[in-house]
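REQUEST ID: PR-0412
SUBMITTED BY: lab tech R.K.
PRIORITY: routine
TASK: structure prediction, single protein chain
INPUT:
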Amino acid sequence: MSIFKRVGNIMRSNKTVEPVKQTNPLEDSRVGDIVNVDLEEYVVSGKVIYFDRGFAPHRYAYYLQSGKEIRCLLVEKGRTYECFLCEFMEGALDDPNDVPSRLELDGEATFELENYRSDVSRAEGNTDFRSGDDIMIWRYFGPDDRYFFLQWQDGKFVAMQGSRTPASQVKFMKGSL
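STATUS: complete
OUTPUT:
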């Protein structure tokens, strides 16, 4: 073996290999990706990331579109991931101070306030919110594992009703770049 081959082999062996970054599709998916939830496929048309100033994000809202139908997949990060597939609802409230602790929807279901928090948003694609502003979020629980979410940002309310979906039933596929 020649001296040049030996030096070349030594040089190649000293190259640092960058570790492969592990990604979590529940957090890292982007606008244009495909999502399969409960055996239905959607295209991600928008994404809202919720976080406290100075901390990592803890909630993600994916706006999902299938034809004319638009839904929202909420992913809440804790010890495990909680996923909620929601439908947008119409309604009217004028002031975030008027948000009740008990909601009654169409006289058929009563929802109780589970928690309330204020976060900062970062939005991508087609969403109802702007980036960099505070969002107030109310989470209600109801009968039959149904949930109601109310969000407010700068005079605009967005209401959603949905149910919990196991994170294992949510599959993301990367869209074309």
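NOTES: The radius of gyration is 22 Å.
REVIEWED BY: pending
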